[in-house]
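From the shared-data thread, chain only:
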Amino acid sequence: MNDQQQAAPEQMVFPVPEDFAKAAKCDKARYEEMYRRSVSDPDGFWGEHGKRLDWFSPYKTVKNTSFENDVSIKWFEDGTLNASYNCIDRHLPEKANDVALIWEGDNPAYHYSITYQQLYIHVCRFANVLKKMGVKKGDRVTLYMPMIVETAYAMLACARIGAVHSIVFGGFSAEALAGRINDCKSEWAITCDEGVRAGKSVPLKANLDKAAEHCPGLKGVLVVRHTGGAVDWVEGRDIWYHDAALDVSSACEPEVMNAEDPLFILYTSGSTGQPKGVLHTTGGYLVWAP
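Structure, as tokens:
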């Protein structure tokens, strides 16, 4: 081993600009104070943070936990709310024209911004298409999509009508996709014709078609047109989003959800065994996420 190999790796420290530090909502001292309170007074700490959300009916119980025998952990279990409403609707009175999403394509030359008002319309229309297909509260919906704005619309649309979405990474094989569809008992899937990654097409619809051969419980597939690439079609199962959205309303009332109702399922990678679906509930996840 030469001297260069023995040398310790260089550490680079970048000072925080003063203006940036002044605008920060939390510094080290504030973080440590918050952490101490979260440990010493968890009900008071999380009860205050829960009030940052908009509730249809406020919670009275912050947490209800038991770590004996069958572990039981419940957050805000007597409150009702909706994730889509909290992400979109509550911002409309004052921020309707503010930017809610910025999308950049595989080619950075393609990018655009979505305001809260535009997001509301897109999500409501997507939600109404799902309802038109027969998707209802409690149904499981698998999303096999690239990083496009319609993926965000689909997630928020599922939350709006009370359906439980499960996102499967677009780079996974048909076999991996089928396993996750079957494991979460998904009856519905949302995909697009193709994705684009590093300038190359990713045959998402074709992969889902292969997966569907091993998913007897799959009833419907909603397909978003992204690249315009040719796809095979299964009549009676496949539906083009742009066709289904022609005659739907741009308004959709959010479903009233209990805080402990499922919001989404996210699978572990499966690198050390069978992938495991982690189910996140509505109230607890929303309070943690901001």
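The two ends are 48 Å apart (CA to CA).
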